[in-house]
Amino acid sequence: MHESTAIDEAVAPRLETDSLGSVEVPGDAYWGVHTARALENFPISKRPISVYPELIIALASVKAAAARANRDVGALSAEKAEWIDAACQRIIDGDKHEQFVVGVIQGGAGTSTNMNANEVITNLALELAGYPKGRYDVLHPIDDVNRSQSTNDTYPTALKISLALSLKTLLEELELLRRSFNAKGEEFRDILKVGRTQLQDAVPMTLGQEFHGFATTLGEDHARLTETIWLLSEINLGATAIGTGITADPGYAAAAVRHLNEITGLSLETAPDLIESTSDAGAFMSFSGSLKRSAIKLSKICNDLRLLSSGPQAGFGEINLPPRQAGSSIMPGKVNPVIPEAVSQVAYAIAGADVTVTMAAEAGQLQLNAFEPVIAHSLLQSILWMRQACWTLRVNCIDGITANVERLEGMVASSVGVITALIPFIGYAQAAAIAKIALATGRPVADLVVESGLMTREAVVRQLSPKRLSGIQPVTMAIPVIDLQAEPSE
Predict the structure, then answer these.
(1) What is the DSSP string of 392-435?
(2) Per-position b or e across 97-119, b if 16+ CB within 10 A of its CB
(3) What angle do CA 59, 268, 249 make, to 5 degrees?
(4) Across all residues in the chain, what is the average pLDDT?
(5) Alpha carbons 10 and 314: distance in angstroms, whole number
(6) Alpha helices in 228-308 (DSSP H)
(7) Considering the entire predicted model, what is its pTM?
(8) Among 254, 34, 9, which residue's Cα sits nearest to residue 146?
(9) Contact (Cβ atoms closer than 8 angstroms) between residue 376 and residue 426
(10) How far apart are the C-alpha atoms of 241 and 153, rounded to whole Å?
(11) In the annotation, is 328 catalytic?
């Protein structure tokens, strides 16, 4: 280690120079001139890239893998590679994330993000090695940290890694939410209710079946999102500017992906066609579509929860959502379904982000897509919001849902939909006639069937048991032949 010659950096800024000229940089900043220019050029989103820690970790992982690969092929000294690797590991562990200050929306295909990473890693490495910030004659952000790289291969590679890392956390929350719905399905397994199609009364089912259906939907979405990981496994690291690999050693790409897999624990592989991989954003578009699918289906479930809990007096009133906050500044006692409402709004935002990703993917020209920063922001925000939405839906809503058993039983008892279960015994025409009378008079279907002589009370009770009404214990039999030409018996 070189002994430190650093002065108190807080007392004065330092002067850094690029091809456009010199810029003063705060003395305590780990970023440099290129980042300073980006801060001036892109004061748009007011959101630095550090809001997505997985992206910062992914960038550091790429830079560490590149340093190791450059050392392996002889393009970087072992000492410099060690300095860079150590700095990257500090960032992977969570250090200096606040130094990644460029905005999430930026021109230049992510060049500002790449240079922000190069500069922070360089100055942190210099500090760890005992040198002051800005000693680029010792370790250089471009010549050393960015050796054998271009923004055009490091940025999309880091984006895919960050999406894979973020997706894992989303999948964990989605699975916990599925389990919560499944637990409610077990809790409500014997509670009969009236099913509905097109918002009209249909045949009976159990509340447990309804919640098990929600759980199955989430399980399917978990499987579909898991499948998208393969979309993110093919990277173009080693492609450099346009996919030709210019400035990189022939052995660099293979070494870099090997080290990157060791660092991230992922199963990444070099794309077979680096020209195509550098210009195409189709993987991001497909990933976005799967994310939108899951979000929209989750919103549909939230819509159902709001309907089922509507009221509590003049609505469905079948279930109770946990009261989370006062619902009105004017109506006393009103409580709104705020958690499902928030989750649905997340779904709308994700659907909008999918449109953004689609347009950005289409807008790339020739050998590069310059709009990957907005793709990155759209996808990482969507994953983050959906993960948090799954958490709040589970913790603040699903786990506390209760059933209004008496109301459910009353609706089943008065529902003409139960007549459907008797069709195998009395036929459709007779069932329709009795249903019409039941609707007109409000009398129970069971009583009308027994009075008509079509079935005994015992048989009706048996066929209208909860298990048979809900299909848990299915009944299939031939309908007795009715001779419409025969004379009525005396």
Answers:
(1) HHHHHTGGG-EE-HHHHHHHHHH-GGGGGGGHHHH-HHHHHHHH
(2) bebbbbbbebebbbbbbbbbbbb
(3) 75
(4) 91
(5) 65
(6) 252-264, 274-279, 282-308
(7) 0.88
(8) 34
(9) no
(10) 7
(11) yes
* Amino acid found at 303: N
Mean pLDDT of 271-296: 95
Q: How far is CA 150 from CA 143, 154, 236, 376, 403, in A?
A: 11, 6, 11, 17, 58
**CB distance 372 to 110 below 8 Å:** yes
| Cβ contact 438:416 at 8 Å | yes
Whole-number Cα distances in Å, 188 to 97, 192, 197, 252, 325: 46, 9, 21, 59, 26
Q: How far apart are CA 168 and CA 283, in angstroms?
A: 17
List the structure tokens of 290.
């799967």
Question: In which residue are the tokens 């979309």 written?
Answer: 231
* C-alpha dist (Å) from residue 408 to 207, 414, 418: 9, 10, 14
Of these residues, 22, 77, 267, 328, which one is catalytic?
328
Kindly state the average pLDDT of the residues 2-9.
Answer: 46
Distance, in Å, from the CA atom of 362 to the CA atom of 51, rounded to the nearest integer, reads 26
Say if residue 487 is exposed, middle or buried (CB neighbours under 10 Å; 0-12, 13-18, 19+).
Answer: exposed
pLDDT one-digit tens code per residue, 50-89: 999 999 999 999 999 999 999 999 999 999 999 999 999 9
Cis peptide before 204 (omega within 30 of 0): no
C-alpha pair distances (Å), 61 with each of 85, 302, 413 = 9, 38, 63
Q: What is the mean pLDDT of residues 43-51?
A: 95
Interval 217-250: pLDDT, tens: 999 999 999 999 998 999 999 999 999 999 999 9
- Does the pLDDT at position 279 exceed 50? yes
What does the block give as tokens for 429?
């025409």
Tokens of 251: 């052995």
* Structure tokens given for 175: 């699975």
Please return the burial class of 136, using the count of CB atoms within 10 Å of its CB with bins 0-12, 13-18 and 19+.
Answer: buried
pLDDT band, residue 476 (cuts 50/70/90): low
